[in-house]
Inverse folding.
């Protein structure tokens, strides 16, 4: 149960596990952005959920085609960063002024909200910014210097003029033959089986792609 939950969580970040410890999925190349967008839409209609599209630049409509929905970064940031920063700033000033080191200055209250606003504002913004960046990295599965796709020499063109779609073997509907036929029908070519050989086997020839690969999702 816990293993399945962890696998689903990783899949939501675009981190797919290899099937039988070796086959990561099928990688197909498409001729242009429109073809890639159409393929992503049809792959999702076919019932696949563990797939990703890669291109040198963002493609308008790709998020909708892949069924990604709206980003959850703002929602998570609000509850983990904004509220935490606000509460910490309020508590810190109350504790220092009214409990830890109270000073009677002209009969003024030990703690008051108006003079506390600047600190509350600053910590709220600081914690929100840190939480936003951390949430963005986590939901994208970053940093991730290794990906089985880097074994494909053809995939190195993804930062130049290549448009690719990969269907992960972890998808319940994945079948090497049927999935390949679907990708071919959608106009995919240079279709290849990607194997997960482990981080230690990445060669210098493919390593640069790890630093520059761009995903539209």
């Amino acid at each position: 149960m816990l293993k399945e939950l962890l696998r689903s969580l990783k899949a939501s970040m675009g981190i797919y596990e290899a099937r039988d410890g070796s086959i990561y999925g099928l990688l197909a190349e498409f001729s242009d952005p429109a073809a890639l967008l159409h393929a992503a839409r049809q792959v999702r209609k076919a019932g696949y959920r563990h797939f990703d599209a890669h291109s040198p630049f963002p493609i308008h409509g790709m998020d909708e085609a892949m069924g990604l929905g709206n980003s959850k970064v703002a929602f998570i940031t609000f509850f983990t960063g904004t509220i935490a920063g606000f509460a910490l700033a309020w508590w810190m000033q109350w504790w220092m002024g009214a409990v830890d080191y109270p000073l009677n200055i002209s009969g003024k209250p030990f703690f008051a909200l108006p003079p506390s606003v600047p600190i509350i504002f600053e910590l709220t913004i600081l914690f929100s910014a840190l939480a936003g960046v951390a949430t963005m990295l986590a939901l994208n599965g970053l940093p991730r210097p290794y990906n089985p796709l880097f074994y494909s020499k053809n995939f190195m063109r993804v930062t130049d003029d290549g448009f690719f779609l990969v269907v992960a073997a972890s998808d319940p509907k994945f079948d090497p033959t049927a999935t390949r036929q679907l990708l071919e029908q959608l106009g995919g070519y240079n279709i290849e089986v990607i194997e997960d050989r482990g981080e230690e086997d990445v060669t210098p020839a493919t390593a640069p792609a790890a630093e520059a690969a761009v995903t539209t999702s």
Observations:
- The beta strands are 23-30, 51-54, 163-168, 189-195.
- The CA atoms of residues 26 and 193 lie 5 Å apart.
- Residues 204-217 have pLDDT under 50 and may be disordered.
- The two ends are 28 Å apart (CA to CA).
